[in-house]
Amino acid sequence: QKEVEQDPGPLSVPEGAIVSLNCTYSNSAFQYFMWYRQYSRKGPELLMYTYSSGNKEDGRFTAQVDKSSKYISLFIRDSQPSDSATYLCAMGRDYKLSFGAGTTVTVRA
Amino acid sequence: SQTIHQWPATLVQPVGSPLSLECTVEGTSNPNLYWYRQAAGRGLQLLFYSVGIGQISSEVPQNLSASRPQDRQFILSSKKLLLSDSGFYLCAWTVDRVSTDTQYFGPGTRLTVL
Lengths: 109, 114
Description:
Largest sheet of chain B: 7 strands, mixed
Mean pLDDT of chain B: 90
Largest sheet of chain A: 6 strands, mixed
Largest interface: A-B, 24 and 21 residues
Mean pLDDT of chain A: 93
Structural class of chain A: mainly beta
Number of strands of chain B: 11
Distance between the termini of chain B: 38 Å
Low-confidence stretches of chain B: none
Radius of gyration of chain B: 13 Å
Number of strands of chain A: 11
Oligomer: heterodimer
Shape of chain B: globular
Distance between the termini of chain A: 38 Å
Order of helices and strands of chain A: EEEEEEEEEEE
Low-confidence stretches of chain A: none
Order of helices and strands of chain B: EEEEEEEEEEE
Helix content of chain A: under 10%
Shape of chain A: globular
């Protein structure tokens, strides 16, 4: 069983829709949780990070963590074509991160 | 501000040839440094990490090695490339050795081994 499971998609939504992305994990020792966005042929860029269960909002992005269920989510409201990318979840402890496989999202204009 | 450089951006090498990829970070001191590989359609696989000059930890037994000759320089090497070494190689860093949770990535090197 992989430490981090992420549905690879692909996911295609119309512009303005809410995008919902999820990851599950098996290692209860993970201390912090992140979402990265990666455009084609580029390095990942950090979108959101959080340490605790609950919601964290930043503009159109909301990260949700449920440690009891070992489940994290990222929601993108009012999605734009510029949000088309691969989204990677990552979980960390002791200065190392474990990544999901990434979900490819396409927002149709 | 901090920036990270990786070169070359793309590389095509024959099987059995050597490899040297370089990563440098500017605007920070004492960062943790990481090398990842990303195969097509797959997540990031941690290859090596370093918490200081000359300190290298290997995560996956393989055909590659890493070195950190200076505080802000991280090098990935191979003596003889294999076909399976093809992929997108990413260098990452943390701001310093205290803020070690958040990793920032460089632009990557796309390696094709033929």
